[in-house]
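Q: Could you write out the predicted structure for this multi-component system? I'm mainly interested in how the pieces pack against one another.
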Amino acid sequence: MKLVKHSSAVLMSVILILVLALTGCSGNNKTNDEASHANAAKETNASSEPAATGGDAKKLDPYEVVMVYPDAPQSDLASVQTAMNDYLNAAYPELSMTVKLNPIDWGAWGDKTNLMMASNEKFDLFFTADWLGYNQQVLKGGLLPLDDLLAEYGPDIEAVEKDFHEPAKRGGKLYGIHTHQELGGSQGIYLDKALVDKYSMDLSALKSGKVEDLELLLQTIKENEPDVTPLVAPSFPLDAYYTSGTLDTIASAAAINILDTDPSSYDVVNFYETPRYKELADLMYKWFKAGYVNKDALTPGLDAWKKIQAGKGFALVGDMEILADMEIGSVSKAPNASIKAGREMIQIPLNIDRLQTGKMTATMQAISKTSKDPARAMMLLNLFFKDQKLLTLFNFGVEGKHYALKNGQIALPEGKTTNDVGFYHDIMWQIGNQMLNYTREGEDPNKYKNYEKFNEMISSRAARTFGFIFDPEPVKNEIIAIDNANKAFVDGLKSGQLNPEENLPKLLAKQKAAGVDKVIAEAQKQIDAWRAANGK
Amino acid sequence: MPVLRQLLKHRALVILAIPGIIMLFINNYLPMFGIFLAFKDLNYTKGVWGSDWVGLQNFKFLFASNDAWMIIKHTILYNAVFLLINTVLAVLLAILLNEVRRKVLSKFFQSAAILPNFVSMVIVGYLVYGFLNPELGFINKSILEPMDKEPIAWYAEPDYWPYILTIVNTWKTVGYSAIVYLAAIIGIDQEYYEAARIDGASKWKQMTSITVPLITPVIIILTLLAVGRIFNADFGLFYQATMASGMLKETTEVIDTYVYNALLVTGDTGLASSAGLLQSVVGFVLVITVNYVVKKISKENALF
């Protein structure tokens, strides 16, 4: 009897463990099941026969083009999709094409798209970028080469993007089509205009283009406005402001220093070893110590604009809006930032990008290997480069329901807010010819004219390495190790929480141990080969 | 055929077990065939079968960083500490729960103890953040500030984190283990205790001489299972509770977070498979070893 009791206790606990473990598993199972059902549903929706890709006169078989792109969930997605399909059917019956919008939430993008590719799920148009694993996708064979398709079905793409394909080529073939948009950016500072006026601040010092000259303004705020954070982070000079103003980046820690070096120099150096990096890290450390920067700057998901909105912040370092006559140090009202902050904001550019290889691969549309009819996908992509109506449907939704046109600009329908309108996103930069888009109410109606002008300026200033593409395969493991070494220091240095005197040497030592010299040597080797081949 | 006869004799039990066995097969055995991906350079075009074999190439990245040993050390030490503290506290908690005689109270305490186990790690991360936020957090604002102490930048100071993570892990997991032990304790025959009381044994004596020895097999099973996972860190704990702050890496980087970050850089499935395989192999070896040791010490307590 006793023995039975004893062993039954053991048995009972084992069963309990197993039951709990199994319920845990079945929880996972359910989501898997749902996903595969959804996939199955998609498969059956998609027409099975690839269409004949011959003459245009011949009526094509119906085909559903699945578009996969990152976006926040939109509650009215279905009605927009229906509207797009009605429009496609009415305007381009000869293409007999429908679209299926398959947005994926930003947080799940990496996992889901990897899985979709690995499991050979059928989809057609696919948003990609170098920062979303473009190289890996090409390498793994997830994307189709587009050269022939583009030549045959992409005349409107070629009309605006012809000169910018080189950076997206891998092994001589093109795998991604760059969104037609601004060719670069500008970094600088946003300031709360009310506070600038209150203390009648002199902004002329910022014509130097140096973020250091912000210090006096921050000090004024610190001394007089105890409730306001002078510089609201996450917005760090050691991000794009440093990179774009100091370097032509290559990969990982390899870069060419363009600040005060001979324009014909192609010496690859360490990104973290330039004098400017040290200067800016010192500056941030000083500012952090002085209490000019908020201490929770590194919290994931922290939105600096929310602090400005609440009247708790004064300045913010970041990417500037592209306005008419962009110039370093010029003070102008920033319309989009003012909308975002709910108060009047001014912007002062401190740096303007040069034409970089990386920018051309930062926003692209590709066609998946699993597409049953790549030609049709290319035709649809081409429409996004020529048809304003289609672009507007995709970007702003259905007129009257999701937006109203006011003086030729996009406004929210009466009584609606961005939260309850059902379809509101700013992903114009993901697809098509941006210059065809409407502007939003409050924006400069000439926004896209300004873009064209800005592009001329950027194009005229190509980076030394423009057109060079680094092949990371030979130093793949070193790049992982360097990235690992960086994680412990880079965020702390750029936010000013770590003392550069102490930590920068530590970072460099860790990078050395991780093989940074090998990466730099490899980059130099590839750069030299590229120069020899291109006569630079 | 004694086996067949046995099966036939207990056919009702066998039928009852079949759904579970199928489930186990689908969930735990089928995926094993993916192991060979660890040795391949997966290419979507060539497919799973057609991709090139690359030998141990995929394993290299685990040791590419000279931090490899630090990461492995962290993983094992954290898990060992968690295991020890968890077991001791869970057994204690189970014994205490068993002493609660009023049914309503007993149910309440059991539910309360197991509740943290169901809280998502993302939420736990923010609960911890509520305490440790450098500007508004409870500890800096309501404890250190009134005491006129300098606020601590928790997410930039690696030294505190071994303690913080241990506390969080204990809070989250101890209730679950306690319920398992409680189930074992309830199964103990009351006659033992009656006899002990008649002989005048104190509560403490009853605990050390009856309760603990009788639930030892359960403790061993749970420990063996945990030892098998000693190479697998709780990703949620080390990633979410630290808010993925890079500055804490010196004390908080474990294999799972390292692999995750490496995959963010490369997006390579082969690397993930190789890490998973390595963890499983080490876990397997450890389970066999520990079971062997247990068998040497006391034969009837070994798992197999």
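A: Regarding packing and overall arrangement: Chain A has a mean pLDDT of 86.
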